[in-house]
Every structure is written in structure tokens, then in C-alpha cells.
Amino acid sequence: MFATHSPFAVGWGAGSLVIENIDFAGILLGGLSAGTVLFIVSVGLSITMGLMGFVNLAHGAFAMFGGYVIVLAMNRAHVGFAAALALGFLAAAALGAVLERLLYRRLYRAGELDQVLFTIGLIFIFIAATVIVVGPESQLLTLPQSLRGQLDLGFTHYRTYSVFLIVVGFLIVAGIWLAIERTRIGAQIRATVDNRRMAESLGINVDRLFTITFAFGSGMAAIGGGLGAEFLGLDPQYALKYLVYFLIVVSVGGLGSVVGVYCAALLLGVLDFVLKLYVPKGGTMFIYVLTILLLLWRPQGLFGRKET
Amino acid sequence: MSVALAPAGAAAAAARLAHPAARTLIRRHHLRWWEALPWAAAIGFYFAFPAYLAFGTELLITVLFALSLDLALGYAGIITLGHAAFFGAGAYAVGLLAFHGIWTEPITSLALAALVAAAIGFASGLVLLRTRGLTLLMLTICTMALLQEAANMAHDYTGGFDGLPNLPIAPVFGVFAFNPLYDNTQYLYALAVLLVSFLFVRTLVYSPFGQSLTGIRENLLRMHAVGAPVRWRLTVCYTISAALAGVAGGLWAQTNAYVNLSALDLDRAATVLIILILGGYGRLYGAFVGAVVYLALEHFLARVYPTAWQLGLGLLLVLIALFAHNGILGIGAMLWRRYGRGRAEA
Amino acid sequence: MTDISLETEGLGRHFGALTAVNGVDFKLAAGARHALIGPNGAGKTTFVNLLTGVLTPTRGRVLLAGRDITARAQAERVKLGIARTFQINRLFRGLSVLENVCISVAERVGAATSMFYPAGRRVDVIDESMDLLDTLKLGDAARHCVSELPYGRQRLVELAIAIGLRPRVLLLDEPAAGVPSAETHIILDAIERLPEQIAVLIIEHDMDVVFRFAKRVTVMVGGAVFAEGTPREIEANPHVREVYLGQAALSAAHG
Ligand SMILES: Nc1ncnc2c1ncn2[C@@H]1O[C@H](COP(=O)(O)OP(=O)(O)OP(=O)(O)O)[C@@H](O)[C@H]1O
Ligand SMILES: [Mg+2]
């Protein structure tokens, strides 16, 4: 029922990356750009899980949906890269808001099992719908001219697009961090993550907050899906293929912690890149061992608040 | 008697035990007539569909695997997406022993498979079951993935991605050989193993130990407060569940005469979870109903209309999660309460 | 000293910067009827959580009959005779009332580890549980699913589960909280009928209940013991009136 190839067998990072100048900086940049994509996709998952305590395995499906919107808009309607990204964000956010209002909401109080089942079901629906509407073949993202080629960074040459990703990722984490620390809605999110009942009694409209964050998280996932399509590919199995990676990042980073997800994603990106290069066989084993040890040491994740 | 009471006479005790609530508990483990149905159906299947015995064998093994998960998930409430770890451990135990010519006797091989899986279940349960929720889910997935990677890495022994083909399995009792063309022996052998395992699980869930597992599922924190060594009990349950999953995996390896990495897939773990929930968890027979429905649909639908099957399954899962938390058997029980018994009492 | 059943020495617990319980020295005598009162957030529940091992203290010791049990796990303390109820019900929600109590009784008599005979064969467990339900006037509800009962009766089940453990020390965290006032007397009657040898610590906001039930009262404010004495002394203590009775009177006047 799931993809015939296990998600574990799928490489992360390598793909179409040009591994010619394998110096330290190159490895670092390659890993960081892969990690950045991982972060952009997962950050919404972390916030919504921290906020609602909902085990949303279908998060990757929103990334896939958004990714398809972005790639198809560029390839078929010849929309510009930036406009397509915005379009993907809006489409996935709208879809997220609708599904949250109609379906997700009913399961906030349900057990994890129902949540797991529900979101696995959603993944299947997304996959089947994608196959029916677009087809089973994978989609290619054609980068705009300005992002192709190599960039001279002074100390090394590297792919312009990877550098672009790293910069964008940094801007996003800074933006979200500022929004959560400085804005009213951010304060409401922090209060609700800390203590939902208290937040409700303070007059915070928790329902609306949930919808907004869910929509935002889905939109971010869409951008991640679009930006990452260049080397992760984009096909109907996307939502399942990388599920484990998204979950590792979120649980290791700590639910609800944006900085945590960023660190965990970058760490995983770099680690995976290095292991793929130097330990092509069994490198992933190290990632699983590390994840297990980390979670046993800190079950709430690196940056998660300690639950009592 | 209880602290607050005057001494109770035998007559009073008899009256208390005659209370409907007490009678329900006292009789709960009694066999019902309909419990013979699955076994009668299995025997009937053997004679009615000789051409489908390979499918039937797969079905029986899936029931056993789902039953093992039911013990951990349905009764003790351990939410895991990594149960294939134990299925795979059992399968590889049988496969490695047979392939390298160390041990091919099927029944003792299954016992060894159970032992290996139980050991892994015990070791991982001891450390993992401290956690809950997403963390536990991730830890079970990662443990399984780790085993799969290990099996892949140890290429020289496990055959890596290609697995171990053509396992030589000795005849059952030295007489009944597994025939790759006709699945008669495989089917009956799997049926016998399933029956024995089922009786074991049935005894377990109706025992006081099983009741305390239900308590853990229903309210973990309160269970601590009534003095139960919760973590230890969960570990014991997880170990037994792992052993049974190992038996299922061992059976799978024996009846197919091969093992490969698919035994340890997330795919397999998620599918068995879906099957159990589809049938209804925490009610023994959910494993049977779920496996029959799922495999029959998959067998006849998925080959022809894969996308429609996936779409339909997705919709079904969403509907079950939203409206029918207890799967097919749960819906049946609800209808029975509403119409069947209601009419009888009226 | 042998008559002291539960004792704490400088017991404290903080959550980050917040000190919820601050160096409490406390003695609960054998067979005591002791009330613990204090305004919301005073640390009463946290204190009980420290006594029962739900939380580990950041300082101080807990002694049971002179034995240090600070490092003991929750389950071990139950075996030593400490039982409790929770401020918010913690029941086995999907099970029947009788099953709820059976789980507790089976645990106490050591049946719960048996794997190879049916629970239905332990008629001793079932009988004792039924008996307990009868004394709490829950017998008629025994077969109902506990989550279908009205809240007041659920509170009784909460109590029954604790009594089923036959404790030496029983800690009751606001046993009548959330129960309609017309029904509170059922719960209070049940508590008053507890065997004398059990030491009972009750956390309660209703002063009438406290003065009717308790022989001794401890007032907790801001995580520390503020005053302790007989109900009369506490009632007469002007400072207590200020910090606590004043509030209670106020809220009573408003509610
Ligand atoms: N697990 C926890 N984490 C952080 N703070 C906590 C925790 N438990 C309690 N507190 C804080 O400790 C303080 C004492 O809480 P506690 O529940 O013990 O008060 P209480 O006296 O039982 O109040 P009430 O009468 O409302 O039940 C409160 O400020 C509470 O917010
Ligand atoms: Mg309290």
C-alpha cells in the first residue's frame, strides 16, 4: 500500500547536486541547503503539533500539494518563480484552513491512534488524487536563470541555488522567530502552547489561532515542497517518502520550538550529506541511532519544554 | 472484607456475586458459540478453495501478526508504528538458521524466532516505554528502521536487499513437507500455529494481568496510583507481543521459503496497524475481521484498480477515525446494542 | 514518635523559578483527621504529589512511620499504605464502575500479575469490590460505564478506588470538588465512615466541612505552612482569617 521503496532507502541531499569540489565548505553548504528545505517543510508541523498536540502525519501531503501547484504553475502556466511560490503558499494555506475547520478540528481531543489513522488516510487520499489529477510521473522544477550556475563566495564556489536556499531559510527562521516573540498573535501562540486552558480563560480565541497557525504551517510546507523539488523531486509518493525525516526533525528539535526545528534540520541535513559521501553503506543507521539516543536522553526534544 | 465494613456473611456474598455487574465479570471469559466460526470458516476455506491456499496462508499469518499488535496496542495502549521490527526479527531468525544450514526443523525454529523477537522486544521496551506520544512513535519507527538498515548492511549473512531465497525447511514432524506448488501443508500448519497462539492470547487478555493492562490503557496515571509497576508490566506485555509477532514473521519465512528486507518495512508496520484498527482493536477478533476484509479487498481490487483502492482505503481510514473508533467490530457491537439486545429486552 | 504515620522534613519543590512547596515540616499522626487548607495555588496538590511520589522533591524528606521513603516510586508507596484521590477525577473511563474498583483491589491483593487463569475466577476480588460499592451506595451503578455516571457519583468511584487499596494513610484532594452541593453529603458521609485507624488528610475549601470533619488543621500559603492547630485555634487566628477565611467569606458572599 505504501510506496514500494521504503522511505529509508531514499537518499537525501545527493540527487542532482554537483559534487565536484568536495571540500569542507562544499559539504557544509550542501548539507545546510538540504537541511534548510527540511526545516521549511517541517516548521509548520512543529508549531501545530506543539500548539494542538496533534500527530499530523499528513503534513508532508501539504508540502506535496503546494509543490505541485508551484511546479505546475511554472511549467504549464509559465508563472514566475516568486509568484508561483506565493501561489503555492496561498493554495496550501487555504486547503489547510479548510481541512482544519472541517476535519482536523474534530480530532483534537481524540486519541493519538485516531489521529495517526486519520492522517495516514489523508496521505492516501492525497496520493491517489495526485495520481488521478496529474499522473504518476515525477515533476521537474526548472529554476529561473538567475538562480542557476555557481556563485563565487570568496572562499569557495558553490551552486547559486543552494546558497539562495540557505539565505532564504535563515530569513524565514528569523522572521518566524520575530513574529512569535514580538507580535500579538505570537504571544497568543506562546501562551497557548504553555497552557491551553489558561489561554482560553484569558480570552484568546484558541479556535481561530489553531486555524491560522495550521494554514500558515501548510503554506510554509508548500514553499518547502516547491523549493526542494529541484533535488528531492516531486512525485505522488512524496508525502510518504520523507515522512520519517520530517518526524525526526520535529521530535528531535522539540515540539513548538522553531529554533529547535531549525537546528535539528540543519544537523540532519549536514549529517546525512556527510554520511552519504563517506559512509555510503549504512550511513543512515547512524542517524537512527543518534535519533534514538537523543530522544531517550531528552524525550521532549532538544529545545522542547520539559513536560512534567 | 473491605475496610469500611462489618463482616459479611456467605449469603450476602452470594447476593453480591449474583449482581449483574459481578456476573458479567465472572462469565466474561466463557467461550461463546460464535467463537467457533472463524475456525470453522478456516477449515471450510481449506476444502472449498484449494487454489487459494497460498492467499489463505498469508491471511492466517496476517491475523497472527495483527493479534500480536492487538495485545500491545489494543489492550495495553502502546501506540507503535514499528511492530514490523519483531516480525522481521522472527523472519530473519528462521531465515538465517535455515539458509546457513544450522537449523531447519520448523516448530523449534518458530520457538527460536519467538525468543529472538522477545529479546529485542524486551530490550527495546525496557528503554522505550518510558516515553509516550510522538516520542514513542518515533522511537518505535527508528528502532525498526535501525534493524532494517542492519539487515541491509550485514549483506554477507542476510543477502542484503535481495534477501535469502529458497530456504530449506524440514518437514513438519518429519512427515509433512512444505510443497511450493500446493500450499496444503503450509495452510494447515499456519492454522495450527494461529490456533495455539490465539488460545494463549485469549487466556492472557482475560487474566488479571490482562485486566491490569486494560487499566493502563484507560488511565496510565491512575494505574501508578493504585500501586501497579506500570513500566514493568508494559515491558512484559510488549515482550510477549513481540514474541508473537516473531512467530508470525517466522511462519512467513517458512511458508514462503524466503526472507527479505520487506519484513522490516514501515510499510508492513503501518499496514498491520491499519488492519487491526479496521477490524477493531482491543477485542481479539478485530485482527481476524480486519485481515480478511483488508486482504480480500487488496487481493481483488488493488491489482486491478490500484489508485481507486488507495483512494477508497484513504477515505475509509478517515471515516473510521472520525466516526467509528472501534472499527468494523465496533460498529457491529453498536448496532447489536441498539437493535439486537434492545429488541430482546423489550 | 511511633504514632506519627506520615511526616515531612523541609519538603520543597520548585518549577523553574516558581517555588510551589517551600520547606514544609508536617506531621500526620496515625488515625488522624487532618485538613489542609489554603488559597488557590498555595501548593496543596503539589504537596500531596510529593507525598505520593508523583513528583520528586527538590529538597527535603518524606518519612512513613519513621522510614525515609523520599526515593521510593509511586507504586512502592502505595504498597506501603499510602493512597490518594485526585482533585480532577482519574478513572478508567471506558470500564464499568465495578471494573474500576476491581483493578484497584486486584492490585492490592497481588492478583494482577497472574496471566494464566481468568480474572472472573477471582471471586474474592469481585466480591470485595461489590461490597465496597454497596457501602458507598454505588451498588446499583456497578455495571454502568463509569464515564456515563453523573459527576457526583464519579467522585465516589474515585474514592472507592482509593479505599479499595486499604491504605494506612489516605490523602483526599478536594474530594467534593465539582460535586453539586446537594450531593456533597454523600461523599462526606462516606469519608466520615472510614475506619478509625486510617490516617486521613483532606484538602478542602469548604470551611463547614473542615470544621465538621477535622481534628487538626494546617493552613498553607505560598507553599509554606502558615499556621497549624485545632479547628478552633485556626478559626480564632486573626492572620488566618485575613489570608484565607476572608477570601472564603468573600467568595461565598459573591457565589
Ligand atoms: N507541573 C507543574 N508545572 C509548573 N507549575 C506547577 C505545576 N504544578 C503546579 N504548579 C504551580 O504550583 C503552584 C501550586 O499549585 P497547586 O496545584 O499545588 O496549588 P493548590 O494549592 O492545589 O491550588 P488549588 O486550590 O487551586 O487546587 C501553582 O502556582 C501552580 O501553577
Ligand atoms: Mg489543588
List the helices and strands and how they pair.
The complex is a heterotrimer of chains A (308), B (346) and C (255).
Chain A: H1 24-52, H2 59-77, H3 81-102, H4 112-133, E1 150-152, E2 157-159, H5 160-182, H6 184-194, H7 196-201, H8 206-232, H9 238-241, H10 243-253, H11 258-278, H12 283-297
Antiparallel strand pairs in A: 1-2
Chain B: H1 10-18, H2 20-27, H3 37-48, H4 53-75, H5 84-99, H6 106-128, H7 133-153, H8 155-158, H9 184-206, H10 208-218, H11 220-225, H12 230-256, H13 266-279, H14 286-302, H15 306-323, H16 327-345
Chain C: E1 4-15, E2 18-29, E3 33-37, H1 44-52, E4 59-64, E5 67-68, H2 74-79, E6 82-84, H3 97-108, H4 123-135, H5 151-163, E7 169-173, H6 184-192, E8 199-203, H7 207-213, E9 216-221, E10 224-229, H8 231-236, H9 238-254
The structure holds adenosine-5'-triphosphate and magnesium ion.
Magnesium ion (MG) is lined by residues 44-45, 87, 173 of chain C.
Keywords:
heterotrimer; B: about 350 residues; mainly alpha; ABC transporter involved in vitamin B12 uptake, BtuC; 16 helices; about 75% helix; globular; disordered N terminus; C: about 260 residues; alpha/beta; Rossmann fold; 4-stranded antiparallel beta sheet; 9 helices; 10 strands; binds adenosine-5'-triphosphate; binds magnesium ion
Q: Which chain pair shows the most residues in contact?
A: B-C, 44 and 62 residues
Radius of gyration of chain C: 19 Å
Structural class of chain A: mainly alpha
The whole-number mean of residue pLDDT values of chain C reads: 88
CATH homology-level superfamily of the domain at 4-88 and 165-254 in chain C: P-loop containing nucleotide triphosphate hydrolases
Termini Cα gap of chain A: 38 Å
Low-confidence stretches of chain A: 1-20
In this entry the ligands are: adenosine-5'-triphosphate, magnesium ion
